[in-house]
Design goal:
Layout: H1 2-17, H2 29-46, H3 53-59, H4 70-80, H5 91-106, H6 116-129, H7 140-154, H8 160-171, H9 179-187, H10 197-211, E1 217-224, E2 231-239, E3 242-246, E4 254-259, E5 265-269, E6 278-282, E7 287-291, H11 295-314, H12 319-454, H13 458-479, H14 483-534, H15 538-546, E8 562-563, E9 566-567, H16 572-589
Antiparallel strand pairs: 1-2, 1-7, 2-3, 3-4, 5-6, 6-7, 8-9
Helix pairs in contact: 1-5, 6-9, 6-10, 7-10, 13-14
Length: about 600
Amino acid sequence: MVGLKEELLKSIWHAFTALDLDRSGKVSKSQLKASRTVLSHNLCTVLNVPHDPVALEEHFRDDDEGPVSNQGYMPYLNKFILEKVQGNFDKVEFNRMCWTLCAKKNLSKSPLLISDEDAFKVWVIFNFLSEDKYPLIIVPEEIEYFLKKLTEAMGAGWQQEQFDHYKLALNTSREGLSAWELIDLIGSGQFSKGMDRQTVSMAISEVFNELILDVLKQGYMLKKGHKRKNWTERWFVLKPNIISYYISEDLKDKKGDIILDGNCCVEALPDKDGKKCLFLIKCLDKSFEISASDKKKKQEWIQAIQSTVSLLRAGSPPPHKEARQKRKELRQKLLAEQEELERQMRELQTANENKQKELETVRKQLEAAAARAAEEEKKRLQTQVELQDRFSLELEREKMVRQKMEEQVAQKSSELEQYLQRVRELEEMYKQLQEALEDEKQARQDEETVRKLQARLLEEESAKRAELEKWHLQQQQTIQMTEAEKQELENQRMIKDQALQVAMQQLEQLELERKEALEQYEEVKKKLETAANNTKSWKDKVAHHEGLIRLIEPGSKNPHLITNWGPAAFTEAELEQREKNWKGKKMTSE
């Protein structure tokens, strides 16, 4: 009932909007009231709804303008007329009544290639295919569908390229066409060039029958009677739930109906009784034998009836209505996607505008910051100049202080250099002392090796060494004397040098004797090496215990023994102890 109500509202909308207007373009109250009263009465008549004029007045009692109120009529129409519609009315008569009210005011005065009856059918088709929003328009997709149907009915070829150009021009100016613009388009012959008026009229009627009257198929066939069993030609009209048959195609004299439901079936029959192309329609109460004009018509009718029964079993609407619903759903889906895309674009645009505002705010903040920075830079430069002047004075003072400090540093550097020179000299003296100590150490080691053999020469050597040491000390004392004493001392030194030479000769004699003793020592050394192989490190231990190896230490204040090589590394007591040991060993060996 909702779909039926929408279809009725579209036709009523045309009649409602075609009410008389005065010269100023406004609705005349008297004419509008009379027109709406007449419209309400006519609607009740064609829709088989009881008319209640009192209800019309009661409905507008609280409205100052009464029945002429635009806001009050549509609720009245829904409540008192459309809600009472049961469907037992003639759709064509209803549409013709609405057409009569609106055609005269809206139909184009220019000559058309179609008749008024064809224009009426196009108008009804428009109401069927138009969108469910007001003011009513038919979108390009539905225009294409309608034109394809017409072209197919006329037996002509569809010119897709021609329609694409028209669609492109249409989309640039508007969303679709009104009913009267669609009538002008069909009546102009733009898409039916080369076709006569009769062919176009027949094509419009065929499309009208299919889309509006739900005629799925129609044509002449022979029907076998149930009582007289004779064959009679009838005009059959197939609709979604019924097959009606008439005497002729003008549909004036109906002879009967074949009620279709999900239990009906159709099957082909073999030729018999001189009749060909037979098929049988089985219903619950009756069966109908039909004879088509040829095999093609027979097959078409069987398929059409089977499709209709299948739709009844599935509870589906007629194919053209189902296709229209799918096209609407597709458009709604595309529209929803487009709206969603537009919403996203608006959101993006809003976000972009917000970003632009944020950037503008940031730019202003940057400009303000730049102005503040410039002011601060100016203050900084001024402060810098003041500081530079102050620093210049301080720098001059610092230069003077630094100059004084550099002079002091130079002085300190000179002192440091002198100190480092003294350090280097001390290090050199230390190295020389180390070398001397190493030499002395080596000499003492050599001395210790031959000390046992030289013990008997110690007394004589010590005496000579003491005398030489005395002379040496005297020489050192002589060097420290004044220049006035040098000559006298030089003479004494010469005398002493002569005595020293004599002593040196004696020392050389002793050296010869020492070499002989060394030869004897070498023989003893070979024997000692043989013994050393049996007793590891005996020599080192003996040397350690006997104190042959000594560190260089400050000498004692007591007089030292003098050897051929200088002061001895042992005392008189140690020498006496060693002489005793040597004599004891000698006696033992003898």
